[in-house]
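Long-time lurker, first post. I've been practising inverse folding by hand and with some scripts of my own, and I keep getting stuck on stretches where the structure tokens seem ambiguous. Below is the full token string for one chain I'm working on. Before anyone asks, I'm not after the true native sequence, just a reasonable design that respects the backbone. If someone could post their per-position residues I'd love to compare against what I wrote down in my notebook.
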């Protein structure tokens, strides 16, 4: 493909050299450059691609896209100066892969909590309905029934378009995609053609990356601002930020809620460990998912499915068939009747939602034991808040490691403990080793008790000092409860 065709719609400011040259591929990692490639110099949070321009050229790059032109240029290399390299990369990736999103019904799901569940269950619903579909999520990437591992909530632009192109090549009609605030802010979703957007909720998260909550909210809002008139925007109006998302969108505005008037409204008639009985827009449906937060998720899924053209009755039938998502309120019941729940809850709001759900279905004749940690190198302000929620809403709270990354686990736990109120001190204990913490929770539990293991959910590793070790909460608790039952 010619460089000029790859650059279509990118905001170009300076061109030095010919653009009618054939390009082998696009790279933004200089280590992956080979002869005939174009190198895009991205200014990242940890490194600046501009520092690697010479290396990229030495490895065979014949074109460079950058924000700041080098003082010294190499003969035979084309230099393209752009306003924002990450934005240029997004358009270049779309063009290089043949603008695959334009051939799909692509729906983006954004918000603090619920993105993975909604995206995954929409994919599941449309596959169950007999459609060819794809999924881009935190947990995995799916092209029909073929699974690929996921590394980021919203992958880089090249990865997104590579998988979208594969979906098109395999006949996919729909794609459901998690859209993170990082992904929006870093322009990874620019150049994509969305037919719909879903807003779940907004709460305390990623304030290590976004300077303020208002900035975090406005980044999410920009996704809806950029939706075309032909698209639809489905937002949760029980969250006060829901209507904010709709303020400047050209898309068709649609709302959903449990508490207030909305286009799509649900009531929870029954809430049990076996599922929910919901009344959606006057029609009753039994679903296998649990809790108020899942009632919101299912309502968003229903609204999206209907606006993608499914019959309302058929959409309800398909809702009733949906199975829970890996690491999202997954539970097992041991031989001794101990219920262990594993959930990805890693924000204060998500943890409170899960504990509220458990509170609504428990009898109070049993103990609720919560095992929870907070990630290292991430927003520190939520640590005491999560510890406060866990200690005040549980009978016992065990503070442990999540993914400490480069931080000292004991220091993270100390930060958490600052949020525990005096009356809850005796309910808490700190156990740095996560496996040991889960083991202690299992040893403390008696028949009919409930154990919640929060924070990691679907993750099958623990990151400590730059090394990822195998670790799976569900596998661990199953193994320990099995041993205790012998």
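-- Answer (accepted) --
I ran through it position by position. Result:
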């Amino acid at each position: 493909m010619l460089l000029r065709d790859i650059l279509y719609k990118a905001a170009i400011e300076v061109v030095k050299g010919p653009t009618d040259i054939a390009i082998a591929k696009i790279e933004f990692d200089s280590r992956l450059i080979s002869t005939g490639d174009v190198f895009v110099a991205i200014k990242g949070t940890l490194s600046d691609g501009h520092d690697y321009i010479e290396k990229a050229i030495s490895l065979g790059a014949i074109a460079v896209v950058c924000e700041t032109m080098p003082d010294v240029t190499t003969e035979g290399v084309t230099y393209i100066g752009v306003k924002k390299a990450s934005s240029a990369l997004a358009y270049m990736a779309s063009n290089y892969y043949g603008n695959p999103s334009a051939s799909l019904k692509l729906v983006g799901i954004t918000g603090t909590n619920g993105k993975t569940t909604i995206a995954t269950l929409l994919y599941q619903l449309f596959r169950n309905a007999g459609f060819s579909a794809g999924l881009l999520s935190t947990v995995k990437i799916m092209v029909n029934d073929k699974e690929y591992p996921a590394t980021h909530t919203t992958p880089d632009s090249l990865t997104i378009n590579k998988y979208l192109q594969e979906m098109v090549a395999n006949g996919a009609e729909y794609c459901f995609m998690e859209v993170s605030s990082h992904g929006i802010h870093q322009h990874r979703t620019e150049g994509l053609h969305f037919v719909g957007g879903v807003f779940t909720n907004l709460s305390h998260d990623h304030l290590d990356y976004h300077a303020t909550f208002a900035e975090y909210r406005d980044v999410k809002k920009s996704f809806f601002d950029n939706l075309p008139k032909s698209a639809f925007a489905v937002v949760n109006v029980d969250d006060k930020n829901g209507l904010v998302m709709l303020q400047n969108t050209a898309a068709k505005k649609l709302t959903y809620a449990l508490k207030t008037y909305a286009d799509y409204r649900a009531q929870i008639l029954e809430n049990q460990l076996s599922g929910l009985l919901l009344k959606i827009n006057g029609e009753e449906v039994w679903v296998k998912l649990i809790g108020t937060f899942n009632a919101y998720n299912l309502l968003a899924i229903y609204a999206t499915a209907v606006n993608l053209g499914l019959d309302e009755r058929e959409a309800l039938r398909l809702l009733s068939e949906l199975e829970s998502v890996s690491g999202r309120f997954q539970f097992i019941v041991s031989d001794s009747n101990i219920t262990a729940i594993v959930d990805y809850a890693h924000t204060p709001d998500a943890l409170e939602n899960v504990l509220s759900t458990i509170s609504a279905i428990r009898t109070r004749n049993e103990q609720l034991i919560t095992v929870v940690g907070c990630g290292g190198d991430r927003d520190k302000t939520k640590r005491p808040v999560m510890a406060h929620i866990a200690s005040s809403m549980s009978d016992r709270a065990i503070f442990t490691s999540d993914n400490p990354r480069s931080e000292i686990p004991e220091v993270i736990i100390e930060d958490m403990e600052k949020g525990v109120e005096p009356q809850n001190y005796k309910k808490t204990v700190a156990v740095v080793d996560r496996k040991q913490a889960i083991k202690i929770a299992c040893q403390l539990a008696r028949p009919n008790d409930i154990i919640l293991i929060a924070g990691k959910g679907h993750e099958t590793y623990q990151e400590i000092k730059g090394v990822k070790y195998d670790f799976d909460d569900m596998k661990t608790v199953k193994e320990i409860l099995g041993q205790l039952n012998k």
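A couple of notes from the structure itself: The longest helix spans residues 292-307. The mean pLDDT is 94. Happy to go over any region you disagree with.
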